[in-house]
Every structure is written in C-alpha cells, then in structure tokens.
TrEMBL record:
Alphabetized InterPro entries for the sequence: DNA-bd_dom_put_sf, MerR-type_HTH_dom, Tscrpt_reg_MerR_DNA-bd
The keyword Protein biosynthesis belongs to this UniProt entry's keyword annotation: no
Alphabetical keyword list: DNA-binding, Transcription, Transcription regulation
Chain ranges of the HTH merR-type domain: 1-16
PROSITE patterns registered for this protein in UniProt: HTH_MERR_2
Keyword Transcription regulation: yes
Protein name: MerR family DNA-binding protein
One of the record's GO molecular function terms: DNA binding
Domain of life (superkingdom): Bacteria
A Pfam match: MerR-DNA-bind
Originating organism: Tritonibacter litoralis
Coiled-coil regions, chain positions: none
Length: 76
C-alpha cells in the first residue's frame, strides 16, 4: 500500500504470489499500469498547483469584495 496500490490491486498481487503459472512479466504489467496512473495523477496535481498558485498570487487579501480565488472558482 505504501506504493499507492489500492486494496484490490494489493489483493491481486498477493494472489499472484502463490500462482505458479504467473510470470514476472505479469506482475510487471500490473506495476506499469499503476505507474502510468500515478504519473497521470502527478501531472494533474502539478496543473492544479500552477492554477492555485497563480490564483493565490492574484488575490489581494484585503477588505475589497472582489476576490481572485472566488472568481477562479466561478470560472471553473
């Protein structure tokens, strides 16, 4: 689980431990699929970070009713 596998994926991998017909290639495919998912999540988080960072930088944080954060939420 420390590598971000879901419980279902962990169960599947553990099931392969006793499966004498499985190959290392079978396990590698599962790990590669998971890696692709993790990389996509990281890319999405980086995009979110950029947008949020830009939005926070535009926010004046003063007493004015206009707010860049609210504007960004309304535009989303």
């Amino acid at each position: 689980r420390d590598l971000g596998f879901s419980l279902e994926e962990v169960r599947g991998l553990l099931g392969l431990v006793d499966d004498r017909s499985r190959t290392c290639a079978d396990v590698q495919l599962i790990a590669e699929d998971h890696l692709t998912d993790v990389q996509a999540k990281i890319a999405d988080l980086r995009r979110i970070e950029r947008v949020l960072s830009d939005t926070v930088a535009r926010c004046t944080g003063d007493a004015a009713p206009e707010c860049a954060v609210i504007d960004a939420l309304l535009d989303a």
